[in-house]
Amino acid sequence: MEPDTSEKKRARIIAFHLPQFHPTPENDQWWGKGFTEWTNVAKATPLFPGHYQPHIPADLGFYDLRLPEARQAQADLARQYGIEGFCYYHYWFGGRRILERPFNEILHSGEPDFPFCLCWANHSWNTAWQGTNEMLIEQTYPGWDDHAAHFDWLLQAFTDKRYLKLDGKPIFVIYRPDDIPDIQRVVEFWRKRAQEAGLPGLHLIGVSNRDESWDPRARGLDASTMQALPRRDGRIPRRYLSTKLKLLLEGNKHELTIWDYEEIVPILLRSNKVDWADYPLVLPNWDNTPRSAMRGIVFHNATPELFRGVLHEAILRVENRPNEERIVFLKAWNEWAEGNYVEPDQKWGHAWLEVIRDELRIS
After folding, report:
1. Which pLDDT does position 234 carry in this prediction?
2. What are the DSSP calls for 249-280, one per residue?
3. Which 3 state secondary structure label does DSSP give 39?
4. What residue spans define the domains of the chain?
5. In the chain, where does DSSP find H-type helix?
6. Which of 66, 109, 184, 302 sits CB 3.0–4.6 Å from 220 for a disulfide?
7. How far apart are CA 144 and CA 141, in angstroms?
8. Is domain 12-360 annotated with CATH 3.20.20.80?
9. Tens digits of per-residue pLDDT, 272-298?
């Protein structure tokens, strides 16, 4: 379904969507039978006074994304509050896809009839977040035959009527462009393949992690979006503060980093102006302690009203652009074990979604 551009919109909110909410053979092998994202979410506990854990879902419950009813309910809720589409995380490891079932079924069934694009989450999976470093599945780039096969698979998504586009070009996000060998030639190859398939081209967006000088054009990409998650190594503007708890855990010192959300609001968006296309990325919250426990990062005291200020500023930055270019990425729709989600929970209900609707000025 093509986005409706007949009515002027303040922004095109595109929400990253995690497909980790269903059992897979890989997760059964690595973490135990029946593991999903909910496993860590449900067993989380508070780690310091005032720590909001566990986060328990409300309206949608502990859903299973193998169910078309669950996928439809997500789309209906997102549409109700003005989100234009989902950016589904896509995993391609040298021809092997994982967590693929929900999107396969979305693609082949035509349901839900809700716009989408894809983000290639091209990173290896390991156990670093548990304090060890066992490789589970390595992200590799075997060569040109693999790039061709990858594009051939992507093409069926790019040509779906629901796929999000800019100037008729499918939007494709790459999480770690700099990890791809010879990235400029790869994207040139893909653009050529797209044109041969009858598409006007591709709109390729690279994710920059806290590097405000990162220029997508040097990689052959069209645009950037910057995730401004504060780093644990302290490399942040010095005017922002952090509180750190250090505990002795099994004989090793581990550090839980706690940031006050209100203090870091000014660094959650890009601080510099750039002369290339850049789309703001907004973070409503962050708390990955359900996955990382005492190795985690927490945005403490995050509230929908504080998030409103971040979203308001992001929309101001794009609302004077041409309609199709008013893209704001939301991270995320449903990353529950990292604490960045806007789906209803038991504490806030629909408050995060209501902020989005209000800031988009949807009646």
Report:
1. 46
2. ETTEEEEEEEEEHHHHGGGSS--S--SSEE--
3. helix
4. 12-360
5. 25-31, 37-43, 68-80, 101-109, 144-158, 183-196, 261-264, 289-292, 304-318, 351-360
6. 184
7. 9
8. yes
9. 999 999 999 999 999 999 998 888 899
